[in-house]
Amino acid sequence: MDSRRAPGPATLRHHDAVLGVLREAGFTLPMAVHAVSLIDSYVGGFVLQEANLPVAKPDDVEEVAGGILKDLPAGELPYLTEVIVHHALRPGYDHTSEFGYGLDLILDALEARRSKGPDTAA
Predict the structure, then answer these.
(1) What range(s) does the Tetracycline repressor TetR C-terminal domain occupy (predicted)?
(2) Which of 69, 78, 84, 119 could form a disulfide with 31 if both were Cys (CB 3.0 to 4.6 A apart)?
(3) Is the pTM of this model over 0.85?
(4) What count of other Cβ atoms lies within 10 Å of the Cβ of residue 54?
(5) Helix (H/G/I), strand (E/B), else coil: 114
(6) What 3-state class would DSSP assign to 59?
(7) Can you tell me the distance from the alpha carbon of 109 to that of 47, in angstroms, rounded to the nearest whole number?
(8) DSSP string, 3-24
């Protein structure tokens, strides 16, 4: 996570390279900054979520989700129950696949904004 006041040379080179790719792809300076912030926040947030999940590997989902389901108040959380029963517990479900889906949405939105032309946001 980039929370230090004096980031190292590797971090600075990384940020410069990402900004360069965005600028050379036609992003305005404000849009490039927005894009870096958005992507960095998404990646960092996903990493934090992954680090704090009680599931170490996809095979653990059934045990963890089953325990959560067992403790849910009956009938009080129908949408959460639906997610657990009809999504998380389906064969082959892997939460890590959600990362790519979210990143695709972000990249599609950034491309749509870039294609519209100059950004008016400061």
Answers:
(1) 3-113
(2) 119
(3) no
(4) 11
(5) helix
(6) helix
(7) 21
(8) --SS--HHHHHHHHHHHHHHHH
How do the domains of the chain map onto residue ranges?
9-53+95-115, 54-94
Question: Which of 60, 68, 58, 65 has the alpha carbon at shortest distance from 92?
Answer: 58
Q: Which residues does 54 contact at the CB level (< 8 Å), separation at least 6?
A: 60, 64
Determine contact, residues 89/61, Cβ cutoff 8 Å: yes
The 3-class SS string of 83-104 reads HHHHHHCCCCCCCCHHHHHHHH
pLDDT tens by residue, 76-105: 999 999 999 999 888 888 888 899 999 999
* Six-digit token string for 26: 């036609």
Mind listing the pLDDT tens digit for each residue in 63-81?
Answer: 888 888 888 887 899 999 9
Residue 35 DSSP symbol: H
DSSP 26: T
H or E segment and range at residue 70: helix 61-71
DSSP H or E segment with residue 66: helix 61-71
Q: Judge contact between 38 and 106, C-beta under 8 A.
A: yes
